[in-house]
Amino acid sequence: MKQEMRANILDIAANDLEHSGGANLTVRYLAERANTSTQAIYTQFGGKQGLITALYQEGWDRLSETLGNLEQEEHPLEQLIRIGLAYTDFATRNPYLYHFMIGRTLANVMVDQEQVRHSDVWQRFTAKAVRSAIKLGYLQGSANEIGYIIWSLAHGMIELSDNGFIRPRVNEKIIRKSALGVFLAFQGPKFTSPGNPTESWKL
User: Fold this and answer.
1) Strand ranges (DSSP E) for 49-170?
2) What is the pLDDT of residue 203?
3) In a domain, 166, yes or no
4) Contact 107, 22 (CB under 8 A)
C-alpha cells in the first residue's frame, strides 16, 4: 500500500512538473491531489527535500525503463543511434523532468551531488553498445569516453532545439549525421567494411 501511495504521489508530481513547471510542488498541494494527509507525505518522503530527491530518481528510473525496452539492433552503431533517438524523444516528451534530471534543482531545492549516480543509466546502456562496436572493430578507443561524447552531443542538441536555435527540431536525420562525425573520429579497422549502416547516413 505504501509503495502504491509513493508511486501515485511521484506520478502526480511528475505530471504537475510537465504542466506547470513545478510551480505547485508543495507537500500540501500533493497531499490534496493524492487525497492523503501532509503527514503521510512527510512519513513517506521525510519532507520536501526527500520528495524532490525521489522525483529526481523517478526521472532516471523512467529513462532507464525507456532505454531498457529498446529492441536490440543487429549492428552496434545502429543500436547507438536507437539509444540516442530514445533519449532525445524522452527529453522532448518530458522537457521539465529532463531539465530537472540534468540541472538537479527544482522548487528551490537542489538534489545532493551523490544522487548524480542515478545518471549512470545512460552510460550503462551506451557503453555496452560502444564496447560491442569496439569488439567488432567498428570503433576504437575508450568506451566511456565515446559514451560521454555521444551523451554531450545528444544533450547539446536537445538544449539548442528547446531554445529555438535548431530549426526544425532535432530529428533522426540530424542525429544520424551528428553521430556519424563521432563514429568517424573513433573509427576502427572494420568501419568501412560492407554492411556498415553509416554509408546511407551521409545522404
Assistant:
1) 105-106, 109-110
2) 42
3) yes
4) yes
